Fold these 2 entries.
Entry 1:
Amino acid sequence: MNAPVLEGWFTLDADKPHLLGTRCTACGTYYFPKLKTFCRNPDCASETFEDVPLSRSGKLWSFTNAAYQPPEPYAQVDKDAFQPFAIAAVELEKEKMIVLGQVVAGIGVESLKAGMAMELKLEPLADGKLTWKWKPVVSR
Amino acid sequence: MSTNKDIAILGVGMHPWGKWGKNFVEYGVVAARAALKDAGVNWRDIQFVSGAATIRNGYPGQVAGATFAQALGWQGAQVNTSYAACASGSQALAAARSKILSGECEVALVIGADTTPKGFLKPQPGDRPDDPDWVRFRIGITNPTYFALYARRRIELYGDTLGDFAAVKIKNAKHGLSNVNARYRKAFTAAEVAASPMVADPLRLMDICATSDGAAAIIVSSREYAKRIGRAKAPRIAAISTVTPTFASALVEMPDIATDSAVAAPAQSFRAALPKKAYEEAGIGPKDVSVAEVYDLSTALELDWIEDLQLCARGEAAGLLREGATAVGGRIPVNPSGGLACFGEAVPAQALAQVCELTWQLRGEAGERQVANAKVGITANQGLFGHGSSVILKA
């Protein structure tokens, strides 16, 4: 399997990957990316955190796309070869947080609707490094 | 309580926004001299210089207060420089107000100017997974992404349309036509906006503001000083809110890739908190407002701000726009200056430019874009890293 774009940010389970965060052991607040220093809840002075996998599905909060190729450090392709990609903001119910990510290749904004169920997948960027992406859950 | 805390605005001045290719200090001096002239105050009489820093112009930009003071001619005033991203101008204004209200000075110059680089703003090079700004670009998330997510959320939740967003651009472009300080003075049609390229669906190029060079300066004083120089009726600043967000953040903000988790504390809107504090401080409510200048980094964001200012209920801003209420001549005009749509953002000057516009409006000197009978004005802006501001002016 390819190397991840960010080491330790998600599991490399090809079928059912999880984003990896932390959770404050005192107040229960989740953090993504991982936070291991001082809890940011103003009423919590905790400095103790546990590593936790985040929910790998949630509800689509909003979405957009990148019609132009983002600048570096985004892995570049030839300008003419660039394919616009959709971006999703997904609300995780248990963690009560919204996490951004690309939408899997082939799914454009016209296929998306707020409230849709989305799940986490892994796909490579142009340099072959794996990143997390959101994919609509197709009801069967 | 509010009357005792008011300060007077004696004069305002700007250097026109644009891409002039000059040093930011030149713009600042032009604005400062215009404000001094407008105030009828001699530079020698200014007791405090409160500068808003620019981070893109080297050391002189980081000590902007002193840089402008030297350019105008050292005369022994007290000096300060504030940096708070898009709210830098408001922080500099707040510093001047504190000095005046504490009795440390009577009259102050507040000033901000910027020269912006050409092209896209890019993250610093290198491999830096600990830097959220690097991370988001690495996974393909740019600045327009955030504004597009907020805009799309309006479409999904309230039924706003691309036509509504275009109507904001058309309105602001019309407002800015007669504004000599605006960079873009061109009328737009819905067809022209619709023909501009899609950048981040649903936002097109014409929905997103540019970056500009520009400068704004304000002379403020105690009300006693204003009376003494025959300016008892000068507009007043009744509130300056520069609060931080309250944990947990409800919106994913640039450059983050996630919101706070609202497991232990409820999710809170930062934008809505800014004017709320200003209203409390001024002892007035949204119904008292006659004109607003808000930070339209995107067309759709103007609609969010209108609701954050409580000028209507959540989800109703597009309705207000459609009935013409937010245009000059309407019930509650928003961005009579033309807003960022006509100016483009000059970070340390922008919050002060909003106050300049409201000053002209409250004095009845705004010409073709004058809001009839303007008595109370409010500004709102938000920038990176938990910075934002809202200022209330009274006639």
Note: Chain A has no helices and eight strands.
Entry 2:
Amino acid sequence: MSAKPMLQRLRDAANEVDFNRFRFWFQLVAFVLFVYGGYLAIDLGSKLPFFSCGYNQEGRAGVCYLLPLQHQLGRNWAVLFSIASLSILTGFLGFALWFIVLNKGWCGFVCPLGTLQDWISALRRRLGIRFSNYTHGQFAQLTKIKFVLLALLILIPLGVGGGFFSHDMSPPFCLICPARMILPIFTGDLSQFTIDFSSKTAVVMTALGISVTALFLVGSFVKKRFFCFFCPMSALHYLISKPALLKLKKDGSKCTRCGDCYAVCDMEIKEIADDVTTTNIMTDDCTLCLKCVASCPETGALKATFAGIPIFVSTEAGFIKRMNKGCQHGK
Amino acid sequence: MKIPNRPAALLLLLMLCGPLGAEPTEAQKAEWRARREAAGGEAPSEAQRAEWRARREAREASANAEGAKPAASAHEGHGQAAPAAAKSKKAPASAASGMAHDHAGAANRPATGVAVDKAPGKPEDAARASGRPAGMGGMAMRGGGGAVWLSDSPPARGDGAARGGMGGMGGMAMGGERSGPPSKRLWLRAGNDPQKSGFAREDAEAESQTLLVRPQGVLEGEVLPPPADGKKNLAFEMPVQGYYRVYASSRKLQGETLNVSVAKAEIANFSHGGDEEERAKALVAPRILESAPIEIVREKAADEKTFFQLKSGDEQAFVVLQKGLPVQGARVRFVSHEGWSKEAVSDEQGRVSFQIIRDYFPAWDDFKKRFKASYLIIAEANAAEKGVFKDQPYSTVRYQATLAGNYYPSPDDYRSYAWGLGIGLLIVLFCGTAVYLYRRRRLKPFQEVRFDER
């Protein structure tokens, strides 16, 4: 038997990889990089397409784009509607360039808040507590929330800049984002766990922030990727995901609708199993975690491509290998 | 300082007049008498008058005695003031009239042969004796009384109001045309109290110069044109990110003493959307002017971020430099927004540190967490340096540097951990319990169905 070409062997190795382990280590490295990278003088700028929280002042290796975006939109209108706001466009361009590389894979593999949710889910699993699901009706309603939050994230700073809202509402999303409170804890900074009594607006916003954080902790414990469902960054990603290089593709002709992909999907995306006509199967809720590809037993039914090149394809051999190692279906 | 009552104020006024060395005119006496009577105060007794007279004579005698000491080694130490004076260019519009009333005393004090005169003869000695605030002892500076400093707000406007913008002298607001780069306006003010200081007045006898050092400009700075069109502010644009520094220096001869003052302002201009490489360069760029006869540099903490704000309760260090070299023994004074002050002496590194006090105590409904308070740093040092200024010889040089900045209320004043953690814990417990109970209710216990076979 002739030896397989090197490229084919590489492909086989990738397709048969112990995906859960690979993803765990990838996420861990990314978490350490973006939560502690600042101590190593790593600074990847302020246009990152995931929650590398700017409030983690000591350890951050870059800043989530939503923070500068809200600051820029909150400028006085005289400045906002001037040439000075060209920086908003250039900033967005920087964000888009980052995003275009991994698409929503930033959420599934890199986002520290997403990683935290996965770790909380792992803790629940170890404790033997079952997870929760939304009903289809709930899913259909809740999935819209992230777009509402994205709209508010843009409109409220504009209102602040126009003098309609208090400056204590700015930056509105960061004030209620759990990353603002949770990620600095990893560098020993508990300063965000406070209620600001300097004004009524500040009291409301900080209390809301703490409430959302508390809900995040409880929600993540019983529901996989609880917060990603409401994440406005995810909504923004989806709006500009067309030209992204990393894509999730489905060949409906090879799909048997076994439902394995749906069973492992943290986001409960039913289309991944039901839709056999769409090629580009990534939806607005998808985090591109690629667990669906890893759990698919049909060769070539699901695949992740980078710039059109398949980098991770579902194969029967890979499926069997992973099953033998104990794929955590439905947990 | 609060003056308790009007008679006391009159007494203070009389004491302030003491070092002038001249007897009040009859018109002045009549005016004081009238004011005293209007205030319901009593005329000072003969005993009080005698005591004041004795004090004044003692002061004058002390000053004369010091003035008679030989200035033997005046060239030791730095002794190089003349070249700097010669190099300076005249900026007539920013010249101002000074406090030319103290030359009989402190201004004539000779050097004692050390680089920085720490011996008797410190400028504030006379000031203390006269009851005036120290730090101003006879500097022939522009202004109507007090140190000359650069402020980001004019006197009438006052400080404290939270204004938009970022950066600046620890948070100074910035302006700018809509379509242009941000700009900055600074006012030259005179006085020891950040709130009460008025505009610095022009002094035709002083030689003045204002330099602007831009982040990517020449290290020596460029001459900033004086205010035009009747305006009183110095204005300049800040097209790139970084620290912009303005040095308003003045030289004036009083007796045999050359008074050299440098009022400095440092404005941080950074933006979130700005060029990151430009910002990184600006953060490591030098923040001193090696040609400055004296200057105060605010020491940046190692972990200080771009959008730094000084808060009440923070410890802030300053370094006093002359021609880029640290000055040991300089008397440095911190004056808070409400006029509280503290004095310290710089160490061998020229360093001095102050804790920013909390002096903002409004009614809670009026509390503003973005309340911008101003502080003022005044540094003074004497040096035995001989030279010639405007064809007049001098034997000592009195240096004065000022630096103003802003500070804000500490978050500890308005933030509560107890409430934050309490609310968080309550919601976690409530939601956790709710989820648990919800799940319990949805569990349907197995119920065996038995048919009744009878």
Note: The mean pLDDT of chain B is 73.
